[in-house]
Amino acid sequence: MKVYINGKFYEKKDAKISVFDHGFLYGDGVFEGVRSYNRLVFKLKEHIDRLFESAQSICLEIPLTKERLVKAVRDTLRVNKLDNAYIRLIVSRGEGDLGLDPRKCKGNASVVIIADRIALYPQKLYKEGMEIITVPTIRNLPEALNPQIKSLNYLNNILAKIEAINCGYEEAIMLDSLGYVAECTGDNIFIVKRNELYTPPQCMGTLRGITRDTILEIASKKGIGVHEHVITRHEVYIADECFLTGTAAEVIPVVKVDGRKIGSGKPGSLTLRLIREFRKSTKREGIRY
Ligand code: PXG
Q1: How far is it between the farthest Cα atoms of the chain?
Q2: Exposure winner among 5, 78, 103, 145, fewest CB in 10 A?
Q3: Which of 7, 59, 50 is nearest to 32 (CA)?
Q4: Residues with CB under 6 A from ligand 1
């Protein structure tokens, strides 16, 4: 495997960043997770736009134009000869001293691109659906650390993930500070009621996921009603169907939440239809390499 660091490729064992990089010291940086299918990078423009928005929000200057970053992603995929890949884009503040002050990071931000494979959940869960629980750790308040910023500080989500794992579950529902359903640790959540889709709005401590937007787009095109609306746990429990979306997880059915069977307890028909449509669009759309 070859890793892109600041314009050069390094073997995995030599792909190293300084311990004085503020990305390591403070989680001071931003990232994106992207996927490619059959040599097409899915929604790359959207991911790169979001990376630049995250960077803008934390006053981090990305030392490449968007066009050059697209080229770097394609080069990384070609060099690694991967037809299907999970791509991690990381931009960290760069090397500084032991204080928080980002002005001390005198050089450029560090840009890293890793291309690898990822299978987040076992294939069985995509067929049978997964069971998830609500955990005590709430999602970061937008007024404190806005979830729209995909920062390198993912402890909020990691704490929730640990709580789920400790209870024997792979994924967790995180609530917002008002107790509404926000999202999962690395995925957005949807419910289906009377053949219409509901997902929390992005202002409520929910990342505006690119897979989420893709599903909303597909549903609208197919004439399926979509609602970006606050959701309570009760509404999840009484939903006909439930599923999660994310670049890593793709679209995965949920069949039990907090011990309550959702709908028939099997992946729902609309969920399965959206999974099929989503897979079709990953085959059709994207930037070729
Ligand atoms: N919510 C959160 C909190 C996320 O981190 C999503 C939703 C889905 O967004 P996209 O744009 O991917 O549809 C994410 C992003 C992982 C992993 O390894 C997953 C994400 C981020 C970091 C790591 O599971 N998902």
Answers
A1: 58
A2: 103
A3: 50
A4: 33, 120, 157, 183, 186-188, 207, 209-212, 245-248
Q: Per residue of the chain (289 residues), what is the pLDDT tens digit?
A: 999 999 999 999 999 999 999 999 999 999 999 999 999 999 999 999 999 999 999 999 999 999 999 999 999 999 999 999 999 999 999 999 999 999 999 888 999 999 999 888 889 999 999 999 999 999 999 999 999 999 999 999 999 999 999 999 999 999 999 999 999 999 999 999 999 999 999 887 899 999 999 999 999 999 999 999 999 999 999 999 999 999 999 999 999 999 999 999 999 999 999 999 999 999 999 999 9
Q: Where do the structural domains in the chain lie, given as residue ranges? A: 2-116, 123-282
The reply to whether the predicted model has a pTM over 0.90 is: yes
Residue 261 falls in the annotated catalytic set? no
Nearest CA to ligand 1 atom 10: 209
Element (H, E) at 22: helix 22-26
- Residue minimizing CA distance to atom 15 of ligand 1: 186
Q: How far is the CA of 237 from the centre of ligand 1 (A)?
A: 23
Strands 40-41 and 287-288: antiparallel
Give distance in angstroms: CA of 248 to centre of ligand 1. 7
What is the amino acid identity at position 268? G
- Find the 2 Cα to ligand 1 centroid distance in Å: 23
Q: What is the CATH number of domain 2-116?
A: 3.30.470.10
